[in-house]
Amino acid sequence: MIVAITRFRASPEEADGWVHRLQERSRRVDGHAGFLGLEVLRSFERSPEILLVTRWKDRDSMRAYFQSEDFQRAKGASASQEDATFTMYEVVAT
């Protein structure tokens, strides 16, 4: 299994808006082969860190989504987060 994490900081004024947009996401990714789930995490800090965590069956499934029109739309909607970082992990134990 692959876990992909996108993380960024939101100003106190923008944090609730980001959380709302992520809660109201289109859910297009849900129908892609190999997609296992998504969580949105928010830290308790004044300028919270927001993490978007997705789980995938394998790297090929995740790559196929990244090449899809659905991903391009989702990426465009979050383009204003210039400081976002993206990291992939392989689950090696549970």
Key terms:
single chain; 94 residues; alpha+beta; 4-stranded antiparallel β-sheet; 3 helices; globular
CA-to-CA gap between the ends? 11 Å
Give the assembly state of these chains: single chain
Class derived from helix and strand content: alpha+beta
> How many strand elements?
4
| Strand numbers in spatial order across the main sheet | 2-3-1-4
Strand percentage: 25-35%
Quick one: overall form? globular
Which blocks of ≥5 consecutive residues have pLDDT under 50? Answer: none
Task: State mean pLDDT (0 to 100 scale).
Answer: 88
Largest sheet features: 4 strands, antiparallel
Helix content: 25-40%
Rg measurement, Å: 14 Å
In short:
Helix content is 31%, strand content 32%.
Report on the architecture of this protein:
- The protein is α+β, with helices and mostly antiparallel strands and 94 residues long.
- It is 31% helix and 32% strand.
- It contains 3 helices and 4 strands.
- It has helices spanning 12-23, 59-66, 69-77; strands at 2-9, 35-42, 49-56, 85-90.
- It has a 4-stranded antiparallel β-sheet.
- Strand 2 (35-42) and strand 3 (49-56) form a beta hairpin.
